[in-house]
């Protein structure tokens, strides 16, 4: 090795040693953190990590919630599913609740997260005026309805709960072959003791099955026939094939000229609309049973019976001045009359 080379090597070694000594000196003289400062650094770091996690989770939720809401709107909107469900609800009311109508233009729906609430008012004609009967709220979890929540404004409160008790307590018209479970004389006394200056609603049971056009001819003139109870083959026993009580089904007796009513008489008679509604409810029987709070509607069997036998009526809801309703007792083909709602005079 040459002298010149050795000198360069020694020079490098000296530089390295000087660098290492300086580094050790820097480390030795660098400021140290106290234990409290170290805890503070750890605490700040932990909080920062936690806050970051929360913010990320919140951002994900804020993204997911609108997405799920959009999916819900698409579910109810595609194919008009929401409108079809509302249609089933409204038409169930028409054919299962005597003398009850609703303003379909006033039906409101509110879309929630995978759910929909349908709210509407129902009305009952007493005399010449329509009175608010109930405020109804039907909740759908996707397409699965729950029993409706109702607030009644009637003097005679409808039966509470659902199922068999609703059927028995709400039964007011009876097939000619079915037993009338109340004292008909006492029922007539109710009508006879009402003031003359009042109007009332009466549930009439006939002693034989009648064609719809035969009813108006035999009833007193100064009253309106509101709803017809149709013989569907099950009303004599008032039970379905499994022994479950069934409710009357029928249809409004008069044409409703309001545009939104299915019984507006523009293209079909009320009888034709009634049969079409039965076909609709047959495809949506679960919803119809929930909305009507009935365990069994047996729509398919009853629809076939009506199509085979034709529409025959065993009962009707009428309304008018009380003195005129008293004349029902004298009609030969009437076996029972039960008074419904009563109001002060409004007859025109």
UniProtKB/TrEMBL annotation:
Q: Which keywords does UniProt give here? A: Membrane, Transmembrane, Transmembrane helix
Q: Sigma factor regulator N-terminal domain location, by residue? A: 41-130
Q: Which Pfam families match?
A: Sigma_reg_C, Sigma_reg_N
What is the superkingdom listed in this entry's lineage? Bacteria
Chain ranges of the Sigma factor regulator C-terminal domain: 191-341
Show the InterPro entries listed in the entry: Sigma_reg_C_dom, Sigma_reg_N
Q: Which residues cross the membrane?
A: 54-76
Entry protein name: Sigma factor regulator N-terminal
Q: Which organism is it from?
A: Fictibacillus halophilus
* Record lineage: Bacteria, Bacillati, Bacillota, Bacilli, Bacillales
């Amino acid at each position: 090795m040459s002298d010149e080379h050795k000198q360069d090597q020694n020079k490098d070694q000296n530089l390295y040693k000087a660098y290492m000594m300086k580094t050790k000196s820097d480390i030795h003289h660098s400021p140290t953190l106290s234990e409290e400062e170290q805890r503070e650094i750890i605490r700040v770091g932990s909080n920062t990590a936690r806050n970051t996690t929360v913010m990320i989770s919140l951002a994900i939720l804020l993204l997911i919630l609108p997405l799920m809401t959009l999916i819900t709107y698409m579910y109810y909107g595609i194919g008009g599913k929401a409108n079809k469900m509302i249609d089933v609800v409204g038409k169930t009311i028409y054919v299962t609740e005597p003398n009850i109508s609703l303003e379909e233009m006033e039906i409101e729906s509110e879309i929630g997260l995978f759910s929909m609430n349908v709210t509407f008012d129902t009305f009952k004609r007493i005399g010449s005026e329509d009175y608010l009967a109930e405020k109804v709220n039907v909740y759908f979890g996707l397409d699965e309805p729950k029993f409706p929540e109702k607030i009644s404004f009637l003097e005679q409160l409808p039966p509470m709960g659902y199922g068999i008790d609703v059927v028995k307590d709400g039964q007011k018209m009876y097939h000619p072959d079915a037993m009338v479970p109340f004292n008909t004389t006492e029922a007539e006394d109710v009508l006879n003791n009402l003031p003359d200056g009042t109007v009332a609603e009466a549930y009439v049971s006939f002693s034989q099955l009648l064609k719809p056009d035969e009813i108006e001819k035999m009833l007193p003139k100064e009253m309106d026939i509101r709803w017809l109870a149709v013989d569907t083959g099950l009303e004599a026993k008032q039970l379905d094939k499994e022994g479950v009580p069934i409710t009357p089904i029928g249809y409004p007796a008069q044409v409703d000229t309001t545009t939104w009513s299915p019984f507006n008489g523009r293209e079909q008679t009320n009888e034709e609309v009634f049969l079409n509604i039965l076909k609709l409810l047959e495809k949506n029987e679960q919803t119809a049973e929930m909305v009507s709070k009935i365990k069994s509607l047996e729509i398919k069997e009853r629809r076939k019976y009506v199509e085979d036998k034709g529409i025959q009526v065993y009962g009707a809801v009428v309304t008018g001045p009380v003195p005129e309703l008293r004349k029902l007792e004298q009609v030969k083909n009437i076996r029972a009359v039960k008074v419904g709602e009563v109001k002060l005079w409004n007859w025109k």
